[in-house]
Amino acid sequence: MRVAFLGLGIMGRAMAANLVKAGHQVAAWNRTPGKQVPGARMASSPKDAAQDAEVVWMCVSDTAAVEQVLFGADGVFGTEGDSGQLAAGAIVVDSSTISPSATVRFAERLRARGHDYVDAPVTGSKIGAENGQLIFIVGGPEQTLARLQPLFDAMGKTVMRMGDVGKGQSAKLAMNLMIALIYEGFAEGLTLATKLGVQPEKLVELIQVSMVRSGVVDYKAPFILQGDFSPNFPLRLMHKDIHLMLDAAKELRVKLPALETVEEIYEIATEEGYADLDFAATLALLGKWAGVEVKSTSA
User: Fold this and answer.
1) What is the CA radius of gyration of the chain?
2) Residue 130 buriedness (CB in 10 A; 0-12 / 13-18 / 19+)
3) Using CA atoms, how far apart are residues 237 and 247, in angstroms rounded to an integer?
4) What is the rounded distance in angstroms from the CA atom of residue 122 to the CA atom of residue 59?
5) Of 96, 112, 154, 293, which alpha carbon lies 20 to 30 A from 5's?
6) What is the pTM of this model?
7) What is the full DSSP assignment across 223-236?
8) Please, what's the b/e burial string for 13-42 (b: 16 or more CB within 10 A of its CB; e: otherwise)?
9) pLDDT tens-digit series, residues 18-60
């Protein structure tokens, strides 16, 4: 298929590369010049990338970036809403994590121009993107998803349809809320245990054989026990998602008191310079406050 891939960050670059490896014709664009995807045509703008594309696939930072990529001066549709450069019946897919309500509005604008819109945020982190093992959390018509299946197959292992457009983003926010809270509980437990004299690796061993075990702990523990906070999912992006969760809750008059507290920790972590580290770096902040270094005694 002819694909315009827009956004070559931690996830997007690997996703675009896997599309090329699977034999698809890819035109790629990134806001910051210089990134390359071997085998893809590097475009000068979203509009350039979208020339004759059957699918436009986005993976950018936030809601404003999606709107700019689609409707900005050099966007796929431009400020005048012209989509003449796209193939007839082209589909727009968004693997960014953005506002569910904005997603519905974008979809309405595209449907008026004769194009389907699918929200398909992902989970699986950097390693999953590189290995083509992402999980796509999808909102959109089943017949449209069927047309996209060869692209999903090239980039991921599972497609979970959550309902109509917007439901993929809604489910992704709910899941990231749980990830943020589960990890924060893990980090606080490790910090307290270390302060009490328990070796962090021993606490992790206990967690792994008890009901406390979780996928979040399984994935993060090997990194944090070595003091490795290199970004698989940067703290600044999880913080952005937390703001999206709180905004959605405010729109719907839902109270999220635990998340409000965690957001305060992320705010301080950002001020302390952790924004570009993995979101697991909140552990380093907790350790700093407690006066301990939380890592394996053998690290």
Assistant:
1) 20
2) middle
3) 15
4) 10
5) 112
6) 0.93
7) HHTTT----SSBHH
8) bbbbbbbbeeebbbbbbbbeeebebeebeb
9) 999 999 999 999 999 889 999 999 999 999 999 999 999 999 9
